[in-house]
User: Fold this.
Amino acid sequence: SYRKGGYHAVRVGDTFSGGRYIAQRKLGWGQFSTVWLAYDSLTSKYVALKIQKSAPEFAESAIHEIEVVSVLTKNDPDNKKCVIRLLNHFKHTGPNGQHFCMVFEFLGDSILQLIKYNRYKGLPLNRVRAICRCILTTLDYLHTQLGIIHTDLKPENILLVSTINPSNDPNRSKKGPILSKPDGSMNNGGGFVVNAIEKRLKQRARQAVARISARRASLGGFRPVTKGDRCFDGIDFRCKVVDFGNACWANRPNAEEIQTRQYRAPEVILQSGYTYSADMWSFACTAFELATGEMMFAPKPGQSYSEDEDHLALMMEILGKIPRKIAIGGLRSKDYFDRYGDLKRIRRLKHVPLARLLIDKFKFSVNDARDFADFLIPILDFAPEKRPTAEQCLQHPWLNKSSESSVQKLDSEMSKLQIK
Ligand code: ATP
Ligand code: MG
Ligand code: MG
Assistant:
């Protein structure tokens, strides 16, 4: 993809926007762009530089993303809505053409990476609650204040905000940013570099951190901390919703098929029209994945049925039958359902209610399973208009519970150690 119309090749130390931004290391990439950690020499801060592919369709999509994220940033002057902030944008000409570039605030790992660190076992429920509150704050902001549907909500598009980042970590700024030539020694940004803890706390603290992180890992927290890792400082971490490349205004939907497969709402599959409530469906799938470590619905095509049909069957196995009126009400309903509202090609469904699944497969306690299912089930209503809004979800008792878990206690111990 590093050809005409494609990605712009970047090397560490490359500069952008008349020398203002200096590339430090690659943070990630997607279908549209590569994203680099860059040092902003004007403000002396680190930023995330998203460099779009250059072909016209990518340029057009960048213009759209800039338009949406500008609105998000402008209407949230106090930075309270848990959405990514756009700091600047410009064009950069390279050998592959002209690339739109977006400068975002620099964030940490995605919550998908967090699930991986936790070996796909699911995060402690208090942490799931904290992340859910952030996502719902964003959705409420998008839906009620701005009239925007995200359309691609999923763990990959939710990034952690770290309270210690490369621009304010004292140990980091001693070394300083790479200003011109690569030296190959950049550490991970976005978190607390364990190297630094070791220097400051010497032997005793090193043992304490190892002990705590091992205990924490055994309690279902993060994996044990090793040299060079980032440590998140516990209880009150926040996250932000990113990737507004596919977001749209509800009154001008831009595509029939939205959302990443596993997070796709039934009305999108059936093509019966979608609105804000489609984001709520993706939110519920994301919350389930955070709590269990597994995707809620992971459909696969079979010999006699399609991926869409498997997806609808999986939904009905957990949530019960789709009411006939809804099943037969979409533009694509005839492809999947007979006139009685039964799937044409998948006849036998194994109904396992959500709370049962949480107990049997994911070893939730009866109480935890019941409470979590109480929260999720209304959001997974097949009738989009019956789903609660983000604002209503924020009032749900499940989110406002707070039982201090052993993991949390260890986290606060750990963050105290880091502050000294
Ligand atoms: P997609 O195919 O998912 O639409 P895209 O080309 O639009 O991809 P993004 O999803 O915006 O690109 O970003 C690609 C990756 O770069 C992200 O998954 C993430 O790992 C990283 N990234 C993006 N923005 C930031 C940021 N502000 N801070 C840190 N990392 C980021
Ligand atoms: Mg993305
Ligand atoms: Mg995108």
User: Anything to note?
Assistant: The two ends are 47 Å apart (CA to CA). Residues 194-218 form the longest helix (25 residues).
